[in-house]
Write a structure and sequence with these properties.
Length: 198
């Protein structure tokens, strides 16, 4: 997974899109490819931004690379565009929303008339910080934490069973469990006996 570029563009209803701020990481390309790849990303950003209807999101795939666009429309007429390789879609649009919100909070709309004078260095921080999609998507981060907890619990149960104790024996001997809970455990175990715990 890799983010190659993030761009913020002014996309009026009629006329051409204008790049207001952008950042790119072309370090995975050779020295001879970087110039061409950079030019193509700029061209692709403007073309896709102009052709995405206001208020919509879209993803356009070309070979192994994908351009994700969020045209917010409205009074600001801003579009966020991200070029990536294998980056999860939900994380992309979460990130684009953050970038656009931050941009509108820090850059006044009156500055859009002079794109060369716009300074938004935070876009470089977004590009670097969010190379890991779990940083952009809280649901993905929570899922990773749940997966890690599941692994820890599985290892804990495994270590108990490795010492020669069986979970069945522990349940039977437990004074902390009611007869109803013990019966529930045995019934659940019978019904799940065809399944393997991973």
């Amino acid at each position: 997974m890799k983010i190659y570029s993030i761009s913020i563009l002014l996309t009026p209803r009629s006329g051409q899109a204008v790049a207001l701020s952008s950042a790119s990481d072309l370090s995975s390309f050779s020295f001879y490819q970087k110039g061409s790849v950079g030019e193509f990303m700029t061209f692709f950003s403007k073309t896709v931004a102009e052709r995405t209807p206001q208020g919509q999101r879209s993803s356009i795939q070309e070979n192994n690379y994908t351009a994700h666009v969020h045209n917010r429309g409205g009074a600001e007429q801003l579009t966020g565009k991200l070029s990536s390789r294998y980056y999860p879609v939900r994380a992309v649009f979460s990130l684009l929303t953050k970038v656009l919100d931050d941009f509108t909070a820090k850059v006044p709309q009156s500055a859009f008339d002079n794109p060369a004078a716009i300074s938004f260095p935070d876009i470089n921080n977004y590009l670097q910080k969010y190379q890991d999609p779990r940083q952009a998507d809280t649901i993905m981060r929570v899922q990773q934490e749940l997966d890690e907890t599941k692994i820890v619990l599985h290892k804990t149960i495994e270590s108990v069973l490795q010492r020669g104790e069986k979970l069945d024996n522990l349940v039977d001997r437990s004074n902390a469990l009611s007869m109803q809970s013990k019966a529930f455990y045995k019934t659940a175990k019978k019904q799940n006996s065809c399944c393997v715990l991973m």
